[in-house]
Design goal:
Length: 466
């Protein structure tokens, strides 16, 4: 009987040890995972982060939807409210070239982002030779830039070139450039683009502090912007949104800088999702990102034209002309999502929908890698009344007119998802299973042996067992 008792005690001890080992493995395992992630998230040759960072990674596409004007003659001759119909998408593969001029210096790395666009017919509603009727970029632009006492000159240029407030052009021309008779030069919404570069960027590698990995130190050689007459608005915050510091805290917003809109913005956690078997956090722009300054005082320094924005009380648009070589461009979310009602009342045919038109990022919370995103931006221009320019004599008020909206998007492919799960998720799951298995077996053994031992002792004490 003594051997039996000793066996029970030994079993209980072994069970306790297994339980303790399982308990110890939890912080130890977490420490191992944390150390591995921190090592692999640093931007330096040989790390997982570097391989994904320097190359193109997932294919990035830009989809364009144009606002085709259905009543251009009535707008000019009668001052009718514009009516538009969305046409698209016309899709291009972009950011397919790896970073160039990658140069490491101390704890930072500097690089250029080459830009290019290749038309993807299979992902488009038609060829890029399709034509649409849109606002005349040069007429609207000239009106915005030239003071009213020079409208006579603008009128002569319009008449001599047989131009109007609206024009019909191909998708390819509008995006990448066409010869304009007024400018006597090439113009386009994104001209020039192919063969150009964004940057240079200088970012932290994270080698000394993983919390700083990917954070932008400077853009175009400057640590602050010069587009906004305010220190706050000129700040460059966060990363380029392709990745963030590992071990995300969903209570904290993510900050990133976008050269497309010439400012830094933040996104907040919305929900957790499953992306090809990988848990991700979805972050979205908040409705107050482009809110009027009387709602979001932080936006006061982004309001430049009080005349057009009705003393800065209009929400939903951002004048970025100061960073677009004086192109009078207004940026908004597609269909003026979260914008003032007056924006949609001045142009009919718009239907904002957060599901289709909001910007989001799906970020893996342990590594901080962005595995899927959709950056949605609308390009607008402005025109208003004039007593001299014929095509504007019937215009009643200033109008911020939508031309095109784009969705720059990329998503994790199956091959990369499998690799990601194999390299990180499966190891974490195996370690977690081992922890739980040891803990479960240990606790069960301890309780079973201890219970039997107690029962035996109880019976011996009552004299039931000799």
């Amino acid at each position: 009987m003594g051997c039996f008792n000793r066996g029970l005690i030994a079993g209980a001890v072994i069970g306790a040890l297994l339980a303790v080992l399982g308990g110890i493995l939890i912080p130890v395992g977490n420490s191992i995972i944390e150390g591995t992630v921190k090592k692999e998230a640093v931007i330096e040759e040989g790390t997982t982060a570097y391989d994904n960072w320097v190359a193109t990674g997932a294919l990035v596409y830009r989809q364009f939807w144009f606002f085709d004007v259905t009543n251009p003659v009535e707008i000019v001759e009668k001052g009718s409210t514009p009516v538009v119909v969305q046409r698209g998408p016309y899709t291009y593969k972009t950011r397919y070239l790896p970073k160039e001029n990658v140069t490491f210096s101390n704890l930072t790395v500097t690089f250029l982002l080459p830009q290019g666009a290749i038309f993807e017919p299979s992902m488009s509603v038609g060829p890029e030779e399709d034509t649409v009727t849109v606002l005349n970029l040069v007429v609207a632009g000239t009106y915005s830039l030239v003071p009213s006492f020079m409208h006579g000159l603008v009128e002569r240029l319009i008449q001599s070139t047989n131009s109007s407030l609206f024009q019909r052009r191909s998708v390819k021309e509008l995006l990448w450039g066409y010869y304009d008779p007024i400018l006597k030069n090439t113009t386009g919404l994104f001209s020039p683009y192919n063969g150009t570069y964004d940057g240079p960027y200088t970012v932290f590698t994270g080698k000394d502090d993983i919390a700083k990995v990917g954070k932008i130190l400077s853009w175009r050689g400057e640590e602050t912007l010069s587009f906004w007459d305010d220190k706050y608005c000129n700040m460059i915050n966060g990363t380029d949104a392709s990745s963030f510091a590992p071990f995300l805290d969903k209570k904290k917003p993510l900050y990133f800088f976008s050269s497309d809109i010439c400012r830094s913005v933040s996104a907040s956690y919305e929900e957790s999702l499953d992306l090809k078997g990988i848990k991700v956090y979805r972050y979205t722009l908040q409705p107050n990102t482009l809110a009027a300054p009387n709602v979001n005082p932080d936006n006061r320094c982004y309001c430049r034209d009080t005349k057009v924005t009705k003393n800065c009380t209009m929400a939903g648009v951002l004048d970025i002309s100061s960073c677009q070589e004086n192109k009078p461009i207004y940026i908004s979310l597609p269909h003026f999502l979260f914008g003032s009602p007056s924006l949609r009342e001045s142009v009919l045919g718009l239907s904002p929908d957060p599901e289709q038109h909001d910007t989001f990022m799906d970020v893996e919370p342990i590594t901080g890698f962005t595995l899927r995103f959709a950056k949605r931006i609308q390009v607008n221009m402005m025109y208003g009344p004039s007593k001299v320019i014929t095509v504007l004599k019937n215009v009643k008020d200033y109008t911020i007119f939508p031309i095109v909206w784009l969705n720059e998007t990329a998503a994790l492919d199956d091959e990369t998802a499998d690799m990601f799960k194999q390299e990180l998720i499966s190891r974490m799951e195996m370690l977690e299973m081992l922890q739980l298995l040891l803990l479960g077996i240990g606790v069960s053994m301890f309780l079973l042996c201890f219970t039997i031992y107690c029962v035996v002792r109880s019976r011996r004490s009552s004299g039931k067992i000799a």
